[in-house]
């Protein structure tokens, strides 16, 4: 698998006054897709809550290239672009392509795992998180940190 792919469906509330997808909706789609992917890899919200850890973001950035309108057919491709061997730190990239396969936007997030009881970075990385991220598709320019 080269990436996780999801076709997006836009709602009226995803639009801004210029009738294209509002900037913050991109981030919402990325966050939802990350959680869906982790769930599909067995890293469910229930598991994270039971084991007392969860993802934390240090940076989230979007580069907008082409506007997206409510009627556009858009596919989001998600993969890791950077990761430490122990999966303690990672970067995930979401690319939004239209049905002509033109890149419309790219979101990049840098994150880690937080111990939700101690409220600090989890150390060591929970094994289930290591396993999930180890099978996460990697970008062509993937960097091992």
Automatic annotation (TrEMBL):
Q: Know the name of this protein?
A: Acyl-CoA thioesterase
Entry keyword RNA-binding:
no
Is this entry keyworded Hydrolase?
Answer: yes
What InterPro entries is this protein classified in? 4-hydroxybenzoyl-CoA_TE, HotDog_dom_sf
| UniProt KW keywords | Hydrolase
Molecular functions per Gene Ontology: hydrolase activity
Please spell out the taxonomic lineage of the organism that makes this protein: Bacteria, Pseudomonadati, Bacteroidota, Flavobacteriia, Flavobacteriales
Q: Which Gene3D superfamilies match?
A: Hotdog Thioesterase
Documented EC number(s): 3.1.2.-
Which SUPFAM superfamilies does the record match to this protein? Thioesterase/thiol ester dehydrase-isomerase
């Amino acid at each position: 698998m080269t990436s996780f792919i999801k076709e997006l469906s836009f709602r009226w509330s995803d639009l801004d006054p210029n009738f294209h997808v509002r900037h913050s909706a991109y981030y919402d789609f990325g966050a939802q897709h990350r959680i869906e992917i982790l769930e599909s890899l067995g890293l469910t919200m229930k598991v994270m809550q039971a084991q007392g850890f969860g993802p934390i973001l240090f940076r989230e950035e979007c580069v907008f290239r082409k506007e997206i309108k409510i009627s556009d057919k858009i596919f989001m491709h998600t993969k890791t672009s950077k990761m430490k061997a122990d999966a303690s730190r990672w970067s995930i990239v979401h690319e939004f392509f239209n049905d002509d396969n033109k890149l419309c936007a790219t979101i990049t997030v840098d994150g880690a795992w937080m111990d939700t009881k101690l409220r600090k970075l989890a150390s060591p990385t929970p094994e289930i998180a290591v396993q999930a991220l180890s099978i996460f598709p990697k970008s062509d320019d993937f960097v091992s940190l």
